């Protein structure tokens, strides 16, 4: 999210054109018309220069490298795999050459290998015993070798199904398998509530679609009782049958948990005030199912290109660096539950946390059917979670103001905990950033504002093999590169808007 003093016409670059450039990444950049110096009269010099210099053309070469790495390593860049290790080495070595102080931060993760995932209805539903399509939760506890046989006990279905103690009638879940509808709270919270009510296992059924829920936990330690998912239709059928009488099932889950090591990459400018750190992050890992070029090669490439252009501005030269230290981070194991960013924040001392002035997060910024989302730091949308820590509203205002000046439509997005800002917010650090949408569906109104296809996901290839170089919106990518450049350039020099 990513050489010359002149701004290229990267808002109009096509994928084939950029692919050709990526194939010849060592070729000299083409110089095109420069943006006048007074185009951004209210921006500081550094912010203005970075916005001018960071281009989709430059950043695309990093996306092409991530695709190449995935292609050479089984089609993915997942945490704990050679594909991720090669991606981390590419980022590390590129920044080292640019003069940054760069370090790896190693930590342990676990990988789940499911051998058996099966739900068998034994009694209480019309017909002979039958098996239901089942998806074992990642890091579930396994059942005994001969399965877990018990009656089903449906949890109450309300606005927060199976999330709180009052969804489990007192005494009626002990020794049974809880049947819980998906929605509202995390799978961890549902499992904990069911276990606290005495359930010995939990089956979660979907709230939409025709496939089983694919849920999971961050680590094996969170797997308290055997947990799995089934489809909406199967869940509703079981709930209806259980309302009439006892339904007995056998849950068979066998899952092996393997410990591995992965690493974050942390790079920071050599100068700048160490008690006023501007931290910018994106996750570098993909899911195992695909190369993760939008999710989140796009954010990772954007940060890398901005970091390189910041170095070109003298960020690592004595006497020329920004006023405030800028720290870039490429997290691992985000797809396993924000593990890299959580590990990073957890090992900071109280003073080190206080020294972080703000955190900017960029995760999925080139979705093929995009909407320009900006994290809702002041909770002005009044949906989901509340406002971010003090300063988050000002970060949102900075980004919105920049997009307004560019005449780019945008809208708020809740801090829903799905990306790496989570651990920073939890520790009182103001946060903000952008993204362009994941599996959510574009509305008709959004299609009118942003173009694209109403009724289709923002990224139809989310967490799939199709998340490749061929399935990106480079105009959205370019817009968000400018956002990163503007925010980094602004805060590297001036934190006054945050009251610092």
Element-level helix/strand string: HHHHEEEEEHEEHEEHEHHEEHEHEHH
User: Mind describing the biggest β-sheet?
Assistant: 14 strands, mixed
Radius of gyration in whole Å, from Cα? 24 Å
Judging from the principal axes of the Cα atoms, what is the shape?
elongated
Work out the strand percent: 15-25%
- State the helicity in percent bands: 25-40%
Task: Determine the number of helices (DSSP H or I, runs of at least 4 residues).
Answer: 13
Low-pLDDT runs of 5+ residues are 1-42
Taking the alpha carbons of the first and last residues, their distance comes to 26 Å
Structural class: alpha/beta
Give the averaged pLDDT, no decimals: 91
In summary, what is this structure?
The protein is α/β, with parallel strands linked by helices and 500 residues long. 31% of the residues lie in helices and 21% in strands.
């Amino acid at each position: 999210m990513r050489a010359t003093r002149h701004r290229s016409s990267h808002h109009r670059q096509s994928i084939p054109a950029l692919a050709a450039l990526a194939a010849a990444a060592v070729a000299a950049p083409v110089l095109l018309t420069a943006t006048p110096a007074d185009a951004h009269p209210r921006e500081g010099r550094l912010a203005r220069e970075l916005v001018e210099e960071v281009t989709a053309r430059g950043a695309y070469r990093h996306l092409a490298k991530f695709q190449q790495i995935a292609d050479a390593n089984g089609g993915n860049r997942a945490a704990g795999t050679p594909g991720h290790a090669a991606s981390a080495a590419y980022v590390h070595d590129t920044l080292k050459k640019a003069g940054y102080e760069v370090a790896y931060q190693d930590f342990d993760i676990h990988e789940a290998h499911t051998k058996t995932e099966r739900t068998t209805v034994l009694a209480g539903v019309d017909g002979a015993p039958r098996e239901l399509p089942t998806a074992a939760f990642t890091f579930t506890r396994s059942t005994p070798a001969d399965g877990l046989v018990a009656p089903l006990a449906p949890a109450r279905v309300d606005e927060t199904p199976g999330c709180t103690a009052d969804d489990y009638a007192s005494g009626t879940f002990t020794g049974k398998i809880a049947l819980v509808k998906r929605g509202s709270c995390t799978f961890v919270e549902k499992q904990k509530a069911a276990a606290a009510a005495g359930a010995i296992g939990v089956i979660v059924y979907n709230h939409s679609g025709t496939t089983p829920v694919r849920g999971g936990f961050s680590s094996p330690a969170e797997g308290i009782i055997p947990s799995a998912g089934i489809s909406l239709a199967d869940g509703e059928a079981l709930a209806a049958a259980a309302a009439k009488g006892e339904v007995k099932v056998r849950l068979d889950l066998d899952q092996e948990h393997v410990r591995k090591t992965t690493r974050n990459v942390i790079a920071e400018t050599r100068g700048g005030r160490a008690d006023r750190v501007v931290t910018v992050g994106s996750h570098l890992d993909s899911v195992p199912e695909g190369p993760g070029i939008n999710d989140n090669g796009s954010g990772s490439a954007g940060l890398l290109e901005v970091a390189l252009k910041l170095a070109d501005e003298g960020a690592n030269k004595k006497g020329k660096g920004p006023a405030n230290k800028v720290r870039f981070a490429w997290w691992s194991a985000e797809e396993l539950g924000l593990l890299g960013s959580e590990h990073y924040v957890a090992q900071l001392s109280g003073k080190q946390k206080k020294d972080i002035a703000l955190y900017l997060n960029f995760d999925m910024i080139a979705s093929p059917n995009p909407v320009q989302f900006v994290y809702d730091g002041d909770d002005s949308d009044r949906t989901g979670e509340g406002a971010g820590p003090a300063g988050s509203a000002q970060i949102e205002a900075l980004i919105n103001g920049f997009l307004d000046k560019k005449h780019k439509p945008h809208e708020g997005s809740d801090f829903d905990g799905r990306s790496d800002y989570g651990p920073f917010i939890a520790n009182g650090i103001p946060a903000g950033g952008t993204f362009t949408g994941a599996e959510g569906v574009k509305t008709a109104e959004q299609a009118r504002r942003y173009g694209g296809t109403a009724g289709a996901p923002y990224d139809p290839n989310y967490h799939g093999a199709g998340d490749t170089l061929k399935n990106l919106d480079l105009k959205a990518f370019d817009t968000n590169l400018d956002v990163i450049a503007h925010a980094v350039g602004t805060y590297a020099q001036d934190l006054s808007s945050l009251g610092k």
